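#lab-general

N.A. 3:47 PM
ok so I finally got the sequence cleaned up, no stray characters, all 135 residues accounted for. can someone with queue access submit it? mine expired

B.Y. 3:52 PM
send it over

N.A. 3:53 PM
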Amino acid sequence: GLFWMDGITCVMAALIFVAVLPRKESKVVEAEDGILPIVKSPCRDKVYLLFVLIVILIGFSFLQYFSTIPLYYRDYHHLTEEYVGWLMALNGLLVFVFEMPLIKYFEKPRFNMYNILFWSTLFFALSFLVLNIMN
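B.Y. 4:20 PM
back already:
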C-alpha cells in the first residue's frame, strides 16, 4: 500500500504542477544580421555541473537514509513496522513544521546561499555520525 500511495501522490503532484505552473514560451532572439546566437552547452557550465554533483551526492545520502533507517529501527531497536511507520511520519511532520518555515526565513537576500548549503550539508553528515555513535 505504501508504494501505491507514493506513486499516486507523485502522479497527483505532477498533475498539479502541470495545471498550476504558468507555461513560458521560448523566445528566439535573432541577431541583426539574421544569424542566431551560439548557445552555450550546459556541459561547459562549471557552476551548473558543480550543482548537479552536489544534488547527486545529497540525493544518494537521502536514499541511503530512507532505505536503511527503517531496517536500523527494526533490527537494532526491535520496533515493529507500525512504529517505524509512525517515526517516519513524525519525521515528515517535523520537516513540514520546522524546515519549511526555516527555508522561507533563509531565502532572504541577507543570507549567503553557499553558506546555507555548506551548513546544511554539514549537519546532514553529522546526523549520520550521531546514528553511528548512538548505536
